[in-house]
Amino acid sequence: MKKPAANRYSLFISSVQKELSVERRAVKDFITHDPLLSRFISDVFLFEDIPAGDRKPDDIYLSEVEQRDIYLAIFGYEYGWKNKDGKSPTELEFEHATNTHRERLIFVKGNDDKAREPEMAKLVARVGCQVTRHRFSDIPGLIREVYASLVEFLENRGALRTTPFDGSVCDGATFRDIDKSRVTAFVETAEAVGRLKLKGSRAPKAVLQNFNLLRDGQPTNAAILLFGKNPRRFFNNVEVHCLHFHGTEKRKPIASQQPYEGRLMEVIDQAVEFVLGKIDRSVGTHAASTQAPVTFEIPRPVIVEAIVNAVSHRNYDHNGFVQVIVFADRIEVWNPGELPPGLTPDLLRQPHGPIPRNPLIAEPLFRIKYAEKVGTGTTDMIADCRDAGLPEPDFEQRGPHFVVTLWRDWLTDEVLSRYNLNDRQKQAVQYTKVTGRISNALYREITGISERTALRELRQLTDRGILAKVGGTGQSVHYVIAKAKPVIGKGGGNPS
Questions:
Q1: Please, are residues 178 and 172 in contact by the beta-carbon 8 Å criterion?
Q2: All structural domains of the chain
Q3: pLDDT tens, position by position, 330-383
């Protein structure tokens, strides 16, 4: 990468050149002339600026992408020229930026994705699962989005020396706003689980200073969020909103919903208990201990990890709040913000080091075993789901939110699509997921077919391991979703 000096970065602009020539030039001119950005970004690559004699029309300039720190893409309505594999230079450049771990900034012109060429619409959707897409309608709007994104990049890299959110003094708060009893309880819990050996004073003020939660005697944002008497007084976005839907879509009626607000540790506990109260559980025997063990359909540590990550790693400068949504077939945890620079959803599936967005919040959570500091949280979630016979969690960026999906059964939409099912059978599977059971009579009622056809199609579903038959003969016979396989990955099942 080209770095002529410390904190100096280079940038590659990618787009369909003919369609977006004016936008491309406007972005480069703005960056190179802006008093702030020009101090940190020393090189902006634009294909048009290469002398005509040096240009290679068939060259996608992937090496230029790799030499830059920042990949900035502008997506419009046209997909552009395609190579023999059917891919445009813009898509190839995006893929190379992803594979070489460049910082990716994506700006999408307009809001009507249906008006785009099909290949470009697919690329816009695909990119949205990995990074935040910034929408714009005109060049002034594009410039505003580019400026905000580059300033955030420089802040995350430490080039702009601003105090992180969790380490900043909480505006208007004093030490009187700290609940000292919660600090004492934290110390006792951390010592009991073996992750704290406190030396020196155990006074609440000394403990907060020990964890860098005070600045010049004033509570930081992290201190108030963790130990404040009333965090809501200072923050209007600390809520974790839990919702439960009986179906598989986010639509009314809402079976139940509960907003939780307050200190982060308590909010985490409340959100976890909300989820556990909505999913299936089985109770074992007293053979191993005096207390019968309880096993949940999704392992409890997986649920805890997803919620802790959302609360501790979220972007608190974002006005949104965390959502935890329980559906008939899955649980979704929505976290305002993006992954830290250098991490992608795919990298979360591999061993990686810890990169906490809010380290002063994450440290106390680690001390009481709510979180780890070795970067194993997401890989542990994957392993625990596999051991439980469930699909791996999904990690994806959806606009300004990072979303984790925990599947309640092995029969995800992805797996189901691999079976050769007709529309009636697909409808019956979705009905069974929501209601828990289906009979021959119900199958006929929702599809309008004969008893013989219903029997044949239900038999096909059981033969393929999608449904399981319950009961012997007569009206007691019904069908349920087949239990998860002992070990199953994301592909799962036995498609025919």
A1: no
A2: 9-156 (3.40.50.10140), 175-231 (no CATH), 240-407 (3.30.565.60), 413-481 (1.10.10.10)
A3: 999 999 988 876 678 888 888 877 777 788 998 999 999 887 765 678 899 999
